[in-house]
């Protein structure tokens, strides 16, 4: 039986799964990114071990251990291995070329050599991988034109255009959170003034709420409880998100916009006003509107996408 292993390196954990070309999951696990793993790595479906951090050494060994453990669980070597990680991928897709300040040793690490694989181990940006996962087995299944927005500490994203993942000249395409909604606004981490990321990302919620709320989760809870100031801040945030999505729809013309990340867990508190604002903002020729849906695969989307990419990567 042929199967692929998808590995998604995150800020705290490595998500890993074994999946057949038809999308059937054989085994999956979550292991710490750092080198403080508890004894005994997961061998059965769905085990999660603790948490780790961005440590300064040793973390790649846990990627190798996770891959080896899943192969032992399936009881045969993987036919394909793919990997997702933050940063810009190299032109040959064998490594991450640019990711300063995080995961020391990630830049330039050739995963085929490190994992001692006999076949290519293609590498994807984590948001790119998450979109491919949602297109393969999730909320955007079978779509040819799709956008993914991940709403968390920042705002990540990716775009599929006419069946092809949009990468761009240096792999920078898909940083949808860094579009500008206000040219007079404060520059964000990517130097974009008044960005979508700063309008709704968790990174600015304390500033946007005048110090009242430390997280979007607390802001939404207060809004749901009837706090008028919280409601106003939240409405403004969702309005900005709708403006950003409407702009992206005009540029990329997707069939579906998938919204994921921790902020998307707000559910109706997010999607109900978002759809209301899109009714005002979205250009709908002939009455056609774009589906805006929550992500389906959760934190495993990147691992699914990494596996799919490996299966279809030229040998």
What is the tally of helical segments? 9
Specify the helix fraction band.
25-40%
What is the chains' assembly state? single chain
In CATH's first tier, which class of the largest domain applies?
A: Alpha Beta
Order of helices and strands: EEEEHEEEHEHEEEHHHHEHEH
Distance between the termini: 18 Å
Largest sheet properties: 6 strands, mixed
Q: Unreliable runs, pLDDT <50, ≥5 residues?
A: 36-57
Q: If you consult CATH, what is the topology of the largest domain?
A: Nucleotidyltransferase, domain 5
**Into how many domains do the coordinates divide?**
2
> What's the total number of strands?
13
What is the radius of gyration computed over CA atoms, rounded to a whole number of angstroms?
20 Å
Q: Give the CATH superfamily of the largest domain.
A: ATPase, nucleotide binding domain
Structural class: alpha/beta
Question: Which strand order does the major sheet show?
Answer: 4-3-2-1-5-8
Task: Give the overall shape.
Answer: globular
Provide the β-strand percentage band: 15-25%
* Integer average pLDDT: 90
Second-tier CATH architecture of the largest domain: 2-Layer Sandwich
Give a written overview of the molecule.
With 315 residues, this protein is of the alpha/beta class. The protein has two domains: 4-130 and 299-312, Nucleotidyltransferase, domain 5 (2-Layer Sandwich), CATH 3.30.420; 144-295, Nucleotidyltransferase, domain 5, CATH 3.30.420.40. The protein has nine helices and 13 strands. It has helices at 59-74, 111-114, 126-137, 196-200, 205-208, 216-224, 228-252, 268-281, 301-312; strands at residues 4-9, 13-19, 25-32, 47-48, 80-85, 88-89, 96-98, 123-125, 146-151, 155-161, 164-165, 256-260, 291-294. The chain has a six-stranded mixed sheet with strand order 4-3-2-1-5-8. A five-stranded mixed sheet has the order 11-10-9-12-13, with helices on both faces. The chain has a two-stranded antiparallel ribbon with strand order 6-7. Helix 8 (268-281) links the parallel strand 12 and strand 13 (291-294). Helix 7 packs across helix 8. The chain is globular and about 55 Å long. The two termini are 18 Å apart. Residues 36-57 have low confidence and may be disordered.
């Amino acid at each position: 039986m042929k199967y692929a292993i998808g590995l998604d390196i995150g800020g705290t954990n490595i998500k890993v799964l074994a999946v057949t070309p038809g999308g059937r999951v054989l085994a999956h696990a979550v292991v710490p990114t750092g080198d403080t793993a508890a004894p005994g790595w997961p061998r059965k479906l769905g085990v999660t071990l603790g948490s780790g951090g961005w440590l300064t050494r040793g973390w790649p060994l846990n990627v190798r251990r996770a891959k080896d453990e899943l192969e032992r669980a399936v009881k045969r070597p993987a036919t394909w291995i793919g990997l997702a990680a933050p940063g810009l991928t190299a032109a040959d897709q064998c490594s991450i070329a640019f990711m300063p300040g995080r995961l020391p040793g990630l830049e330039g690490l050739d995963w085929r050599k490190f994992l001692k694989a006999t076949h290519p181990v293609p590498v994807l940006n984590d948001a790119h991988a998450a979109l491919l996962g949602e297109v393969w087995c999730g909320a955007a299944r079978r779509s040819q034109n799709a956008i993914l927005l991940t709403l968390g500490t920042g705002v990540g994203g990716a775009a599929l255009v006419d069946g092809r993942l949009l990468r761009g000249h240096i792999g920078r395409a898909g940083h949808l959170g860094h579009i500008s909604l206000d040219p007079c606004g404060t520059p964000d981490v990517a130097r974009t003034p008044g960005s979508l990321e700063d309008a709704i990302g968790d990174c600015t919620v304390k500033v946007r709420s005048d110090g009242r709320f430390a997280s979007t989760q607390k802001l939404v809870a207060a809004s749901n409880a009837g706090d008028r100031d919280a409601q106003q801040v939240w409405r403004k945030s969702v309005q900005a998100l709708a403006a950003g999505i409407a702009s992206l729809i005009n540029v990329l013309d997707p069939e579906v916009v998938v919204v994921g990340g921790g902020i998307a867990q707000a559910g109706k508190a997010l999607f109900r006003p978002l759809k209301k604002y899109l009714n005002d903002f979205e250009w709908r020729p002939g009455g056609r509107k774009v589906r805006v849906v929550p992500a389906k695969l959760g934190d495993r989307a990147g691992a699914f996408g990494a596996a799919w990419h490996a299966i279809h990567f030229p040998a």
